[in-house]
Structure formats: C-alpha cells, structure tokens
Amino acid sequence: MIGADLVRKNPERLLLMMQHCIITRCELLWEFQSFSYHALSPLFDEVEDHFEGPEYEALFNLEITAKNPQGIESFIGFEKR
Fold first, then answer.
1. What are phi and psi of 47, to 5 degrees?
2. Which of 2, 23, 36, 79 is the most buried if burial means most Cβ atoms within 10 Å?
3. Residue 7 confidence (pLDDT)
4. What is the Cα–Cα distance from 6 to 17, expressed in whole angstroms?
5. If we measure between CA atoms, which residue out of 41, 48, 49 comes closest to residue 80?
6. What is the pLDDT of residues 29-81, one digit of tens each?
7. Around Cβ 56, how many Cβ atoms within 10 Å?
8. Following DSSP, what letter does each residue of 19-45 receive, concatenated?
9. Measured between alpha carbons, how far is 78 from 51 in angstroms, rounded to an integer?
10. Whole-angstrom distance, CA of residue 21 vs CA of residue 37
C-alpha cells in the first residue's frame, strides 16, 4: 500500500519507484487513506499461475552532501515483506 499523502506531497519519490512497474490494478482504500497496487516488474520474483504474489516494500537511499544538504533520494529496489 502507498499512502495517499505520498502521492500529494512527494510524487517524485513515487515516480522513482513506479518507473520499474506495469500497474495492472490500483484501488483506493479509503479507510486507510492508501492505494493498493498490483503490478508486474522484472524486479519481482516470478509467481506461478493462479498464485498471489508477495507484497514488496520499496527501498530508497538518501544521499546527503555539502552541495545538497536536503539530500538526493534514489530508488534501490524492492524487498519482499
């Protein structure tokens, strides 16, 4: 699930992650103020037909330098939950 606040406040972070996915389903879960996504990605493990795939967590790196004290965020990959 991805919090609706991330979509509003930090869409750049979402784009870093989503550029590696083909979204096959997206559902707004109003009670959690989150989006539930189903997606395909070469970064995901292969799943046999008729089985539900695992949930993944997106991993990011924040690099802080003297030039960029706010930090530059980069997408690392996905990790199974």
1. -120, 135
2. 2
3. 84
4. 12
5. 41
6. 999 999 999 999 999 999 888 888 899 999 999 888 888 888 888 899 999 98
7. 19
8. TT-EEEEEEEEGGGTEEEEEEE-TTSP
9. 19
10. 10
Looking up tokens 């406040």, which residue turns up? Answer: 9
Q: How many CB atoms lie within 10 A of CB 58?
A: 18
Token pair, residue 4, equals 């609706």
Q: Which residues of 33-45 are buried (b: 16+ CB within 10 A; e: fewer)?
A: ebbebebebeeee
pLDDT score recorded for residue 29? 94
Tokens of 43: 């970064």
Instruction: Give the strand pairing for 2-3 and 22-29.
Output: unpaired
* pTM attached to this predicted model: 0.73
Cα-based distances in Å from 56 to 8, 28, 41, 53, 62: 21, 18, 11, 9, 19
